[in-house]
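hey so i finally got around to running the thing on that chain from the lab meeting. sorry it took forever, my laptop kept dying and i had to restart like 3 times. anyway pasting the input first so we r on the same page abt which one it is
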Amino acid sequence: MSAFVWPTRVYWEDTDGGGVVYYANYLRFLERARTEWLRAHGCSQSELAVDPGVLFSVVEVNIRYRRPARLDDLLLISSVPTQDGAACMIFKQRMLHGSETGELLAEAEVRIACVSASTFKPRRLPPALLREFS
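ok and heres what got predicted. didnt touch it at all, straight out
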């Protein structure tokens, strides 16, 4: 599967007093990119919560910070998901500065579990997402 790439920019609210992105905010950028990947594949998280009644929960994150992102930087965040069993996906994500050939700022591997919206117990991935992996 080819990488989905989502562009964004660093705003003041993302940074510390020195204009550098606060380390925990990298997770926000990665989350937004995964949400946009879902949208690009015809899935809305609010609609999935109703029918078929599933939510996605981060169960594991491994992130490596390489270089700082700074105020006003243009970021490109790539997301490449793979299926990990019946109820999980693993997203390999990269944050680049400025362009697809830009400097690597961070890379992460994020494991997502599909759970029931009512019980929070594991559920199979929805058929719409399973089609993306076949």
